[in-house]
Specification:
By secondary structure, this protein is an all-alpha fold. Helix content is 80%, strand content 0%. The chain has one domain (2-87). Helix 1 packs across helix 2 (35-57) and helix 2 crosses helix 3. It is elongated.
Length: 91
Amino acid sequence: MWISVIYLWTINVLTLLAFGWDKARSRRRRRRVPERRLLWLAALGGSPAALLGRWMFQHKTRKRGFTMWVLGIFALQAAMIYVFVVSFPAK
């Protein structure tokens, strides 16, 4: 149990840092973090941080396709958590 909590905290911190780093790089017109990498971080469990990073940094908000992917990943992960919690209730 604790390993999964530590993993989720770590992946979410890394995702938030990646979004912040990408925004800072975009302001300086430097080489950016690829969208594919940002989406993979979200898919690996960092979707809450991806949504938070988009809001905090006002980043990638105009990219409709990217937004749909992040929201889809978040919805899928939320549904999986719901099914897991309902299927295996705490005793």
